[in-house]
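Thought: the user wants the 3D structure for the chain below. I'll pass the sequence to the structure tool as-is, report back what it returns, then summarize two notable features.
Action: structure_tool
Action Input:
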Amino acid sequence: MSQDSAITLAPGERQLFSEQFSPNMFLTQFKTTMVITDRRVIVRRPNALFGVIPMGYNEETSPLRHISQVNAGESFSTRHMLYGGLAIVLGLINLGGGGSMFGGGLAVVGLVLIGVGAFLIYAAHELGVGFRNHGGGVLFAAASKSERGKVEAAKRAVNDIVFAREQPVESEVPAAPVTDPTIVIPSPTSAVPSPAPSRFTAAQASDPTTPQAVLSQIAEHEPSLRSAVAANPNCYSGLLDWLRGLGDPEVERALAARV
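Observation:
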C-alpha cells in the first residue's frame, strides 16, 4: 500500500521544491514527502505499526521564515529503539515458555517478535534532511541509507530557497541612508542589471513578510519585479528612493499608488 504523496497547498501558495524519499530500503512503498513552498516547509511521514503495517501518515509544517537551520545527515529514532528493545524482550519471554503445552506456538511468536525488534532497531538509524526552527522544533524527512546522494542534493536545493535572504549582494555604495546596516541598496547608476537569479518569485516581491534584505536583492536582480517591490508595504525608504530614481513607468505607478 503506497502512501498518497499529494499535499494540499493554501490558495495562492506556490510550490518551490519537492522530493520523496524511501525511509526503508526494503519496504519502498513507504514514502516520506518533503515540500518547500514560498510560505512554509511541509514534511509528510508514513505511519507503520511495528514498522511494517501501514497506518496512514503524519504531516508537519513550519513557516519558512521561522527555519533557522537545515541539516542533511544521520540521526537515531528513540521511539524505534524503544519499540525494538521491547519486542526483543517479549520475544525472549515467549521463547522461555517453550516447556508449556503451547510451547511450540509461543516459540514461533517469540521468534517473530525478536525479528521485528531487530528490524526496528536497525531502522532506528535514519538518514535524511532536518529542519530546525527558531523555537527549537525539528522536522525530519527520513531517507534510506542508499539515498545519501539524493539527500545531499535536496539539502543544497533547500538551502538556496530557505536562506536566500543570506546571499551576499554585490553592489556599490547605497544611494540613501538605511536604518538597518545589514541592508545594502544597489546603486541607481547601474545601467545594466545583473543576471536574474531564479530563486526570486513575484510572491516574494509582494509579500509584506519578505525580509527587507531580500527585497533589495529582488529589486537589483529582477527588473520585472521592481514594481511589486515598490508596492510592498515592507519596502523601506532608502530602497524606495533608489526605485524612484530609475525612471521606470511601472515603478512610478506603483510608487504613486502607495501615496
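Final Answer: Structure generated. The two ends are 58 Å apart (CA to CA). The helical segments are 78-96, 103-123, 148-162, 202-206, 212-221, 226-231, 237-244, 249-258.
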